[in-house]
Amino acid sequence: MKRVSSHVSLASEAEINLDLSRLIIDRPQRFTLERKRSFDEQSWSELSHSHSHRNNDGFDSVLQSPAFPSGGFDSPFSTGTHFGGGGPHPLVNEAWEALRKSVVYFREQPVGTIAAVDHASEEVLNYDQVFVRDFVPSALAFLMNNETDIVKNFLLKTLHLQSSEKMVDRFKLGAGAMPASFKVDRNKNRNTETLVADFGESAIGRVAPVDSGFWWIILLRAYTKYTGDVSLSESPDCQKCMRLILNLCLSEGFDTFPTLLCTDGCSMIDRRMGIYGYPIEIQALFYMALRCALQMLKPEGEGKDFIEKIGQRLHALTYHMRNYFWLDFHQLNNIYRYKTEEYSHTAVNKFNVIPDSIPDWVFDFMPCRGGYFLGNVSPAMMDFRWFALGNCIAIVSSLATPEQSVAIMDLIEEKWDELVGEMPLKICYPALENHEWRIITGCDPKNTRWSYHNGGSWPVLLWLLTAACIKTGRPQMAKRAIELAESRLLKDGWPEYYDGKLGRFVGKQARKFQTWSIAGYLVARMMLEDPSTLMMISMEEDRPMKPTMRRSASWNA
Ligand code: GLC
């Protein structure tokens, strides 16, 4: 497999100039690729040729990317019994059955999937609700199975919930906020059903989910891309919903950075874990949602203003992320030698990071080959932890340059034991321990070292890892990870997360039959078997467009 040198030079401003006109015309197209349930090496390369005329969906860029060998590669499909022949893996049927059991109905229509169907657990908390972020892998699995109604219903129901009153005590939340979760309230006496949303006002920690709105936009684009049905995304309701979400994050304030300032616990990591500030998970989802919205917003009326604002924000955000959040061996060495207290715009150490604050573990962890986006960057603060979701989303959304994407995958390969271990995939690395755990998590007993959000291993992340693997042309890596999960998931009852440095133990307080563990597995498997499905969630690289060659008038003369 082709390797790109370990050092990824920082992108110059010119290099990352977004070609806005191209992004805007990148409208949803009908997904007409022939479904292939499984295929071998030959069909990979056939696919790459026969569909190379398709444009702007992120899938062509996969097949044409420098990381993708033109002559095929050692296919996982030729070696595995279930990858490319031999019928579906026995786990697949089990997973579908479990996923179907999690479907939630509202007035006889399927509207989502419950977070966990764990009858054994004493405390239900809010695991009996439909979480927006948790539903995303379920939705992708249903779409891939041509069951599109549940996804459409979910998008419409959550859209309507957006307009419910959102109060935390006496404080009213912004109109664009999307719910973290919702449930169906059944009144048996009156025989009525109502949807009740939680915008963070009931959630542990009372934090509004910043990621929900972004996932909603990303899912709307996936639905549109997959079904070819533009009527939903073009409807006035969906256009308004997108504008309201965007309004929350594009309004002017005191910011000096294009990244989005967040409080702790506002995403998948919904407890205090020291991710307040500018967490990579939110920045990557923000970037992806902006690009998805740009494809779907109609330029008429109020949409025009938003399209303009998105363009400007993407331009600045891309530059900021690719430069200041990127860490590889070379960059680590630069930071290690940083001077401090530099004044004025000529400063190299723009955020005044004190080299002494670099944690010891990074020097051992950083391989010569590979790199990743830092967990967080703000004044005098760099969170050197590696976070799975943000780095995988950076690849699929093309927030990472092709070289950076290759480097992120190189790092996962080099640090396989630490990041994948015996159960894919660590939510973050490394865990906070002792004093740091006390100060940063507030002594959270659920987030002890190598558990839950603090270095736990989450099977749901398998679908994102697989998507990143496919995009960078490394299906073997995905296959290896899927097989690891397959050896345990069913046996262990589809846990929410695993504990330990290697992810060997079923999580201390992990739910069983956690829906996104089930759906994440199905999506990973289906994506590997039919990589063309990646286009639902993949974005094209934003490389500058080549000048169009026009034939002169005399050409045909
Ligand atoms: C936990 C997770 C959160 C998830 C929810 C429902 O709170 O931290 O990410 O959405 O459970 O599964």
From TrEMBL:
Classification via Pfam families: Glyco_hydro_100
Name listed for the protein in its UniProt record: Alkaline/neutral invertase
Function per UniProt: Invertase that cleaves sucrose into glucose and fructose.
Catalytic activity annotation: Hydrolysis of terminal non-reducing beta-D-fructofuranoside residues in beta-D-fructofuranosides
Keyword Hydrolase: yes
Gene3D superfamilies tied to this protein: 1.50.10.10
A single GO molecular function term of this UniProt record: sucrose alpha-glucosidase activity
A biological-process GO annotation: sucrose catabolic process
Record keywords, A-Z: Carbohydrate metabolism, Glycosidase, Hydrolase
Claim: Phosphoprotein is one of the keywords in the record: no
Domain of life of the source: Eukaryota
Enzyme Commission designation: 3.2.1.26
Organism: Miscanthus lutarioriparius
Family: Belongs to the glycosyl hydrolase 100 family.
